[in-house]
Design a protein that fits this description.
Helix content: over 70%
Shape: globular
Distance between the termini: 40 Å
Number of strands: 0
Strand content: under 5%
Number of helices: 7
Largest sheet: none
Order of helices and strands: HHHHHHH
Number of domains: 1
Radius of gyration: 21 Å
């Protein structure tokens, strides 16, 4: 039982803390890189240059975290469309991040390359699905008593994510298709990711607490059954 609780704690911890650690590492790397502008440049630009390996490892961490969260969500949603589609979309996003990490973006101003196009494909398989999966899960949370307190939070965060990705596509654009506000690419990307990562952390924490209570209740039942019954008159 203790080994199972340890395993549960580890993979819940990876799911909850991995995305936040990814964001923290990317932020620290951005400040440490001379000439890097976190407002204008996306996080993927950190994978370029001699220290690019740090961001490549960071992408791998995020991919593992998203796969772990897919498993967390699957254990919580056992029926209905969301129980399959929700975890499935997180698996898709995990593969998207793996693709983005394996194939770095093209350097700013460079001609498009097949490697850069594969990186861009990873982005298209990640960002547009963020509001979709959150709104899908929000709908399911509304019908689950245990998750109903998270319904409004998930709904609002999903709608904000939808507004952010819409703003990005209309006014900022991916590197190959610049828009009038393309100089805000890094800022808008971070505004898209940070609320999403915080949501993942909070949902995972709630899931783990529920799992811990379930395990505790099961362990208490044999002890209660072993207590001698009171004598009857």
């Amino acid at each position: 039982m203790n080994s199972k609780r340890t395993f549960d704690g580890v993979w819940h911890g990876i799911a909850a803390l991995g995305p936040l650690l990814f964001f923290a590492v990317a932020t620290a790397e951005g400040f440490a890189r001379a000439g890097y502008d976190p407002i204008a440049q996306p996080i993927s630009a950190l994978a370029l240059g001699p220290r690019g390996w740090v961001q490549t490892v960071n992408f791998a961490l995020l991919a593992v975290s998203l796969f772990s969260f897919a498993a967390v969500l699957r254990t919580q949603l056992r029926r209905g469309v969301a129980s399959v589609a929700g975890p499935g979309l997180f698996v898709l996003m995990g593969f998207a991040v793996t693709l983005a990490g394996a194939f770095p973006m093209d350097a700013p101003g460079a001609s498009p390359t097949p490697v850069g196009r594969l990186h861009m494909l990873g982005g298209f398989l990640m960002f547009p699905w963020i509001p979709v999966v959150m709104l899908l899960v929000a709908r399911r949370f509304r019908s689950e008593p245990r998750w109903r307190p998270y319904f409004k939070y998930t709904l609002v965060t999903g709608l904000l994510s939808l507004a952010t990705i819409s703003f990005f596509l209309l006014f900022v654009g991916p590197p190959a298709f610049p828009r009038p506000l393309s100089g805000l690419a890094g800022l808008v990307q971070r505004l898209q990711l940070l609320p999403f990562f915080v949501w993942i952390a909070l949902v995972t924490r709630h899931a783990y607490r529920g799992l811990a209570r379930t395990v505790q209740n099961r362990s208490d039942q044999p002890a209660q059954a072993a207590l001698p019954s009171a004598p009857t008159a």
